[in-house]
Amino acid sequence: MDTVGRSQDENARTAFLALDFVTYIVENYSHDPAVAQRAARALEAARAAGLPVLHVVPGPMREQIHSALVPAGDEPVLAKSSFSAFATTDLHERLQSAGVGRVVIAGVATSGTVLSTARWAHDLGYEVAVCADACADPDPRAHAALVDDSVFPESWLGLWRIARMVSPDLDW
Length: 172
Fold this sequence. Notes:
It is built from 5 helices and 6 strands, in the order βααββαβαβαβ. The protein is α/β, with parallel strands linked by helices.
């Protein structure tokens, strides 16, 4: 059992979710200008491992994906109109049809799309991992509060309560 009481299914397929990596959002809602490069490293690791990769971005920005994270081949780009990648897309259905039981999340902003998508994924029963270094927020303190269990160790705010924090390298 993991820290949130779910059993780890070693046979569950893992998918990589790249959230809101459009140029405008990366440039205006990230405290860290290098986040796109670290997310690109995580994306390449996912591709090299043969994981399904899905890009989810705000609908009006669908054609503005950051140059470091351009979809390859048939990687879908889902257009959303809410914070969560699940609420207004067919992401859950796509993951289910692909036999996915785990998601690895990278995105901007940590307190927006990453938080909302991770919680939704957890509530749907997915095992969740967050590439903390491949995520960023406009406020570095909010980012730290969500990904670092030492910031507010008694709080339920942190993503670390429901997700495993992983590096952009293939340690997931």
